[in-house]
């Protein structure tokens, strides 16, 4: 069983496909969050993995990120799309708007965030952490569909499961960052370590607590807006996935290990 393209997240997303097959993948890092579901989208074999588990039983800090990314690679995936429910740190970002980020800021702690624990010391650059080709394709496709998607942005990733204090949220805004969530790191960086392409889609589900006029963030609010906009996310992915070409051999993501080892 092989796939070309991977999609993380998407609780219930794969239920829109027909003739899917489930695959149990063993990895050196334990079991992934759930069995991987493989199906066809516009002639592309696509692997879907709900990062929080089938019943959303895994909180952000407990997700087996290394196992999840490794499982995708094990199935032959070279290009990954990672949608996340995200808070907005800017008032002008609208609920349901997508931000196709080009940068992240890591504010997590204690997560297993590398495949390279030695003995060969490996430093993979994170200067430009998201695949520029996938980013451009998603923004272009969204524009054709009339879906509001912002090109570029910085997502700050917090540890969770708690939401930010007002002071933390204001600090993140003052730094000029755009969106906030709990799952974008280390998922995307781990993909880069394995020389896979990865793109983040931050879907705005709320305005973070420090944004002027915003109240405390609730899980209920996040889920409600996410469900309301899940159809647009599905529309975007179903339109974009058939247009994704194979990963080029000479590519920023595919050559990430060049010069990374001592």
List keywords for this structure.
single chain, alpha/beta, Rossmann fold, globular
Describe this structure in words.
It is a single chain. By secondary structure, the protein is α/β, with parallel strands linked by helices. It has one domain (5-243): 3-Layer(aba) Sandwich (Rossmann fold). Helix content is 25%, strand content 23%. The protein has helices spanning 65-74, 132-145, 166-174, 184-193, 219-240; strands spanning 5-8, 21-23, 36-41, 44-49, 79-88, 98-100, 103-107, 149-151, 154-158, 179-181, 197-207. Strands 1, 2, 3, 4, 5, 6, 7, 8, 9, 10 and 11 form an eleven-stranded mixed β-sheet that branches. Strand 9, helix 3 (166-174) and strand 10 form a beta-alpha-beta unit. Helix 1 (65-74) packs across helix 4 and helix 2 (132-145) packs across helix 5 (219-240). The mean pLDDT is 92.
Return residue spans where pLDDT drops below 50 for at least 5 consecutive residues: none
Helix fraction, binned, reads 10-25%
Domains (count): 1
Percent of residues in beta strands? 15-25%
Order of helices and strands: EEEEHEEEHEEHEHEH
Number of strands: 11
Structural class: alpha/beta
Helical stretch tally: 5
CATH topology: Rossmann fold
- Rg, alpha carbons: 17 Å
- Mean of all residue-level pLDDT scores: 92
How many angstroms does the end-to-end distance come to? 35 Å
The CATH homologous superfamily: Nucleoside phosphorylase domain
Instruction: Please name the CATH architecture.
Output: 3-Layer(aba) Sandwich
